[in-house]
Write a structure and sequence with these properties.
With 368 residues, the protein is mainly alpha-helical. 78% of the residues lie in helices and 0% in strands. The chain has 17 helices and no strands. Helix 12 packs antiparallel against helix 13 (252-266). The chain is globular and about 85 Å long. It starts with 11 loop residues before the first helix and ends with a helix.
Length: 368
Amino acid sequence: MYRRRLIERERAASYLFTMLLAFALTILITRLFLELSGYPQIGNEQLHIAHVLWGGLIAAVGATLPLIFANTFVLEVSAALIGAGLGLFFDEVGKFLTQNNDYFFRPAASVIYVLFLLGVYVYITVRRGEPDAQTRLHHALAAMQEIVDGDLDPQEKADLERMLRATTRAEDAIPDVHELAEALLVFVREQADVVPARHTLLRDALRDARCWVESTLLTRGVLRALLILSTALLGLLSLVDLAALLRGLGDPQQMSRLVQGWAARASLTSGQEATWFVLMIGLKAVVGVALLIALVQMLRGHEEQAILFALAGLLLSIAAVNVLLFYFAQFVAAAYATVDFLLIAALNFYRRRYLPATEADRRSQRAP
């Protein structure tokens, strides 16, 4: 007896990415706008229409759209609206954590960042999932909406045939799934009409821009140089505070000035905050050492080891250093987190595109 189970939607990872991006941008734009505008309020002496209400309304609209409309593009719109709505909602998390409804509660920024990291974990888990035969057939049935709409272009037809073909060959499929996939594959091949692919100025411009980036900026030499420069710069920045601390150990006056500068920069108001700040400096130093080791390995040509060291340091930065940094300086932390995520993406892209072929070449050269 085949049991009903949850089926992951095709492009689920893409929708989650859109939601997370909208969430992060909404938080940053809202906080930056409020900081620059002096925290204006909508209301009067009695009423205050907080943006948490607008966030709930936007998220509700985003969640309602796919309940009403079946079009695939609605899911992308829904993901963006839900992300923006949740961003406005959780931006005021400080009010929910304190007795006096304190929007400026310092740990609030760290809490929001941790929520974002949980979303990133879900995104990574979904992105790495491998569909089985039943899931592929669900995806194919959803894709056949293009046939119903009379909007099936050649690429969509090829993708649909690929999904159905993979389902017919799957060993984990029950007989009914095999038979339905085979019948649909015959129908798509022989009877599904296609329309010319639609071209718009924006789509063509994005395609041309992507081709230019891949052919110019993402060549192995250019990308390797950018990774070396980024790793070196971020590694040295991560060691700045530790270097200043080591220089001040032998000079009480310099140490006093350094501590006063840290207290002013991070608005330290208690010994506990100072302890967390020193812990952050120590963790940043570990990140810096890992990145500099990665730099040395990259320069020596040990690219796989270099990437492993760099990823380990960046993951520590994302999971621990930035959580503390958001407590002390939310906008600086946002910049560091953005750089960390971009560098991780670049490292994974480099390893995925270039290193497997390189390792295969090395094995073939060693073979007799």
